Predict the 3D structure of the following.
Amino acid sequence: MTAKARRSGEAHAPKVTLTLKAVPPRTKRKKENSLPIRVMFLGLRGFPGVQGGVETHAEHLCPLLVEHGCQVEVIVRSPYQPAVIPEAWRKIKFSSIWAPKSKALEAVIHTFLGVLYAAVKRPDILHIQAIGPAVMVPMARLLGLRVVVTHHGPDYERQKWGRLARWVLRAGERQGMRWAHQRIGISNVICQLVQDKYALNTRLIPNGITLQEMPNSKDILARFGLVPSNYFLLVSRLVPEKRHLDLINAFIHSPRAGWKLVLVGASDHPDAYTQSVLGSAKNHPGIVCTGFQSGHALKELYAHAGLFVLPSSHEGLPIALLEALSYGLPVLASDIPANLEVGLPAENYFPLGDVAALSAKLSEFALRPLDVERRNARRTWVSERFNWHAIARSTAAVYREVALG
């Protein structure tokens, strides 16, 4: 993006000047690696078993950070955090703070309250997730907190947001990247975006996967009338940028005998798009909407699918795609930069929005038998490239650098 384009895109944003020198310097942490680093996560709904890429990211990462010498506290949004989860889960402490269940307001209000809470608790690191919550980074800095921000993707490009929300998200990206003590990007695409827009370096630490035992049970398949290896699978929220309707239309025009299309996921804030997806699916007997699934049920759906499909127009670095590969599934994805960065062969991509090309690909992949050797090769490949243990080690290193700096 050119400087001229950036100026044009920010023409309506008020100029804010902060003087951080007025804040007394925070006492540096003693340089003793034996001391645990107290880390507070903020900017996510909750976990485990809460729908969302950021939530899945934190669910996998936080327990491993504990293994790398961190004391982890996660501030969660009370309407979303499962009530059955204890306050201490896998040595992670949850602190539930109220948030309005509102698409436009919940992230900003909850993060504001969370920063105030962090200012009282004084963690060594406040780790803010995503650019919407990052709009509160200057406030956190003024309160003397040391802040790390993970940029999960340019959310202002999501189709669901209106003009005001897009402005807030752009402001969050700008303020978060400029004022954080350290920035993490989950993909090269994001790191390059930050470099181009703000001339700032960003630490590349991607999403990851953890290889698990392949489940043999098929209880969830029986519940939805599915045959192993004979269904296409998409796991995502019901939001416009996931392009469910493209996949539905491609499936309808590429019928394969005995094959079904399984859409796993729900919407946090049901709207006209949600109704259009559910309505389109209801009109075709070969399309199954399971709603949100997690735990063993989701593992079964991944393990027994014939092909995972991700037709989305916006991603950071798609965890669902990586998880499909961790089960050895063949995958098919739109050719947006975030999906291309996964590094799959060219045959695994199709042009974004090209329903005819997607339909042809579905037919092509449905004819290929699932080979055990190829499945194992995919599992090995993705585990070597996107490993949560290595990701946790790199993240903990960032914390120590910021806390001791």
